[in-house]
Structures are given as structure tokens and as C-alpha cells.
Amino acid sequence: MSVIGAGKSGQAAAALLMKAGASPFISEFGAISPEGRTMASGAGVPFEEGGHSERVYEADFSVVSPGVPQSAPVLIELERRGVPVYSEIEVASWFCPARVIAITGTDGKTTTATLLHRVCETEARAKGFRAFSVGNIGVPFSLKALEAREDDLVVLELSSYQLERCVTFRPDVAVLTNITPDHMDRYGGDISAYAAAKFRIHANQVGRDTLIYNHDDPLLRGHFASGEPWPFRVVRFGLHDVAPEEGVACVTVRDGSIVILGGASDIVIIDVAEFVKPSFRGEHNLYNALAAVAAATAAGVSVTAIREGLVNFGGVEHRQEFAGSALGLEWINDSKATNINAMRQALQAVPAGMVLIAGGRDKGNDYGSVTGLVREKVAGIVAIGESKLKIAAAFEGVVPVETADTLQSAVSTAARMAARGATVLFSPGCSSFDMFRDFEDRGEQFKQLVRELAS
């Protein structure tokens, strides 16, 4: 079989297939990194780079890395020749005997997956099994598929890209955090196509499985309210107008506590005030907590472990992370905000009077959707990256906007614009690939600049 793409996912899938007794061949359209060559050579996997040869099509099936667009000529030709094409997630699922909790959505999936893994780790230590954190969060599913045992738990974060070529993948518990416009450049501006990829997460679930969704999200609410009853258990979570119905439980906040409603009796999990912290605050993080509680409960995790995991959770790096104090200002690193909805959540959580640093590679963003919030909360904007002129035009006359050519210049400009005691929020609302390796690289550079200011 052939593996299209030599990134982390492709390398991991090839290594897994090799261990399973197959004969994978890696084909990369561009250049393979030195680390990738070393990994392939060490695993004994043949590879090519700089284009796709005829050998790619001489395969029983092909595995495609998530970064390869569905419109790529190599995928079109594979389909024309009748060669099945699967995602790395699909292939890993063939070999993983463990219980799987899968999380997807536009926003909140990393925080929810990280929190859920901490909760599951707490339970694992007490019960003697293991909890793995894999997928879009950083470690390819294929690297752990053979290591996991039947009684272990795998927490799997999934992007729409990773779900596109899933055929038989069936998680025991599936979570949908929300769906708002994102990656519209990949999906031709069609949110229904983007949503359809997300809905692959529950396509094969059956009666013993659980699907958990955000009932406050209008697109999800419409999707799960329409048609015949679903062939799996459904659990809702939300903060507004969510209530249990016959056969459908819900997780919400009542009288300041997270509660599970709809069972034989209501279950009070934890007072919200016990786990809210400066690095884990805001309504969006309350949604993340509700999703994690619902998923952990569906997987059989004890209330004790859920409480302990929530209390000890301090948030996720690069997501509204406190980067430090410098020059009389508070600095927040929200580099993981790669779309407008994530930026909106940060704007809602940070005190008014802030200076916002935003911009990067635009993904078809509608900046007008946050104009009211910017007018209410933001004292000034520093725009960077490929989208800086679009951002400047969008907020002209709303708040003062300056542009910067580098992140270092943006930080200096923000420090000059901000009033003493205010907050500087770095929430790009765009992808990082115009100026940085990825959002982690972008966030690390921002934090380093703040450290330099502080010193």
C-alpha cells in the first residue's frame, strides 16, 4: 500500500502498517524532512519525494495524510483507478482494541481533549489502566494503536481533515463541541461540506455508543433534532435552554454547579467556582468543561476522578495562556485562536480596555462578525501578517488600528498603545503559516518577546 504525505501522520501510519506485516511505500509531493527520512529509513519503509511515481498506484489501498487536500491530483487518480483511500485515523482504528473517546468541533476540541485526558488519567491511576492522548493534539493515533490494551482509554482529538477519509471508524464516545465557519478555503466556502466532514465522527456509531453534542450550537441542534431517532445514545450539553427529554440526558449548570440531568436522579458534579482559574475562564471554557464531564461520564469515569481532574486543570498552552507581566501590562498568549470564533471567545473573556494583536493567513474570515465586541472591549488593534490590511480596513473607524511587519514590532507597538494596567491579547484569528512554522511556534515566539520585555 502507499502512504501519501510524509508528515507525522504519514510516517506513523507507515510504521504501524510495517509492524502489522504490510509493505508500505511513502510518497511525498514536496521534500521530506531530515527527521522524516531518518524515521522511514529506521523503520525500513521505502520512500520517494519531489513527486508521485507510478508506484503510488500499484497498491491495495492508500493512506492519505490530513494535510493533503482532497482535490490533489494524486487522490483523484487513485480514485479513478479504483484504489481505496483512507485516513490515518481510519487505519489506526483497525488495530486499536481500546475504548476510544473522540472529540471534534471548530473550537474547544484541544482544551476539551486535554481536560478529558487529565480526568481519565486520574481514573486510570486509581483503576490500573492507561489513558492515551492522541490525534490532532500532537501524537498520531497510529503511534499508540498497537500499544493500547482493551481496558485502556484513548482520548482522540480530530480535525475535519482527519475525518474526511474515515470509512469504518467508530468511537465508543463521540463529542461535537460546535461548528462555525472555518477552513472555508478547503471546503469552497460551503459550511455544509465542512460540517459533513465533522459528522463522520458518528457515521458508524451503534446502540452501545454515545454521541455528545453542544445543544446551544444552532447547526448541531438542527442536525440532531431532524429525522428519525439516532441509532446511538445521545447526550446534550449546554448553558441555555437545554433540558433532558425522554431517553436524552443533558449536562448543564444549575445553581452554580455542573449537573447531569435525565437519569434516575440528578447528579451534582462540582461547583464551577472550584475549577475556574485565570488560565481557564470564560463561558467557552465552561462549555469545554461540560463536554468533558459528559464524555467522561459516558466512558464510566467516576465522579471523584472528574472532580479531581477539573480542580487540577490549569488550561492549555497557547489558549488564553497568561504569558506574564511586563511594562505594567498583562500579556495573554492566545496563539491557538486560528479562526474568528476563537478570537471572539478570547475577547469575551479578557477585561475591556485591551490592545489586540491579530492577523496571519486569512481563512475567509468575516471580521465584521466581531465589530460590536471589538468596539465594546478593545482600545486598539495591531494587525500583522498577510491579513493585516484586511483587518485594518475592517476596523477602520471602530478603534485605532496600526499595522506591523513582524511580531516583535507588533509587541512593541501594542506596548505603546496600551494604557498602564491594561491587557495585551495576542489572538490572531488566522492561521500561522504566513510567518511561522505553526501556532505553537507563533505562541512561543510571542512568549519569548514578553519575557524579554519583562527583563
What would you say this structure looks like, in words?
The chain is an alpha/beta fold and 455 residues long. It has 3 domains: 2-83, Rossmann fold, CATH 3.40.50.720; 93-311, UDP-N-acetylmuramoyl-L-alanine:D-glutamate ligase; 321-454, Mur ligase, C-terminal domain (Protein-Tyrosine Phosphatase, Chain A, Alpha-Beta Complex). 35% of the residues lie in helices and 20% in strands. The chain has 16 helices and 20 strands. It has helices at residues 8-19, 34-43, 73-80, 88-95, 109-127, 141-144, 160-163, 191-198, 218-225, 283-298, 303-311, 340-349, 371-377, 388-394, 407-417, 439-454, and strands spanning 2-4, 25-28, 47-49, 62-64, 85-87, 99-104, 131-135, 153-157, 173-176, 210-214, 233-237, 249-254, 257-261, 267-271, 321-326, 329-333, 354-359, 378-384, 401-403, 423-426. Helix 3 links the parallel strand 4 and strand 5. Helix 5 (109-127) packs across helix 10. The chain starts with a strand and ends with a helix. The model has no long low-confidence stretch (mean pLDDT 93).
